[in-house]
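chain below, 259 aa
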Amino acid sequence: MIAVLSLLVVVTLSIMVTRIAAVALTHTGMARQAARFQARSAFSGAGFTTTESEQVVRHPVRRRIVLILMLLGNAGIVTAVSSLILTFVRQGEAGFGLQIKIPLLVAGLLVLWALASSKLFDRFVSRVVGWMLDRYTELQARDYDSLLRLGGDYRIAELGIEPGSWLDGRTLAEARPQKEGVLVLGIASEEGEWFGTPAGDSRLGVGETLIVYGRAEAIQGLEQRRKEADREHDEAVGKQKQIAMRERTEQRLEKNHGR
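prediction:
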């Protein structure tokens, strides 16, 4: 009977460990489903080679989380197998034969499986673990490259406003860079002042530097545009609409293909 209970305890701890690790991985910027998959893979020692695995290996905080999972997984699996063997080998426990052990083991595993599959339980555990990680750890090393999908066409860059620039003297509402696929994250003045998430009435001037996010081509075109080049702006807006439509179509096709 002790072997059965110890096996159930080990399985329960295994479920909790992988849940905690999955929440910790999401705190580093990984998508929730990817974090759960990688946590289970590391704990079980499956070691799938995927792009998500490469994201784990390249990130120092994620590497530490996965290393701990691997160590705990090896110990947990060995303990579980040992307990399972003892459950069916030891017949000397009075009053607890196989006719009691097997139903008890099956019932316990079914209860644990139901809890592990419960979305309500998952949300509760994720909230509790997330709160504890925020309160008692400093796990804020998020992978912003992954979050913003940097790489390929998209990047964060500095855009300086030079004399004769199309942006000089315009407000953000007048320039409408977001229509061209360029988001202004902040403005650094020539004196070193920083204005985060600037409003539309923020007027731009020579010497200021914009921190922007968007396609490299769109950022470069906006930086090189000269005064009175409104036609280029209209062309860039039209091109961005076509690109956005193409990206949405590709995403829908990928989503349908994955079903």
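The longest strand covers residues 154-160. DSSP finds ten helices and four strands in the chain.
thats it, cya
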